[in-house]
Amino acid sequence: xxxxxxxxxxxxxxxxxxxxxxxxxxxxxxxxxxxxxxxxxxxxxxxxxxxxxxxxxxxxxxxxxxxxxxxxxxxxxxxxxxxxxxxxxxxxxxxxxxxxxxxxxxxxxxxxxxxxxxxxxxxxxxxxxxxxxxxxx
Length: 137
Known about the structure:
Blueprint: H1 2-19, H2 23-47, H3 53-65, H4 72-79, H5 84-100, H6 103-109, H7 111-136
Helix pairs in contact: 1-2, 1-5, 2-3, 2-4, 6-7
């Protein structure tokens, strides 16, 4: 839960710095995104199914903005104040930090797997950056 709140705060700061969108204006949208995350996580724990948590969170978000659902238009308007690139940046940072905890295991596997892993991660990051840059302009 702490990681979700830290990610939300960092995304709000990134939203302000990178996209000049006020934290106060984006706060309700971030609250909705955080609520969808908590709801999706809670549903995954409640049903204990083989469905990944990310699917439950996505389902909660889609249902909140589905036409015909009360307050769907308002939810869309509020969450539009949070730029997706500002939200993705801290998530990628946490993913990079999670790799650091696996370094001892990589050393036991040998240097070729370390090089391959770093190249794959770098390629994924650069590919995501290029796609984001392409769609932004």
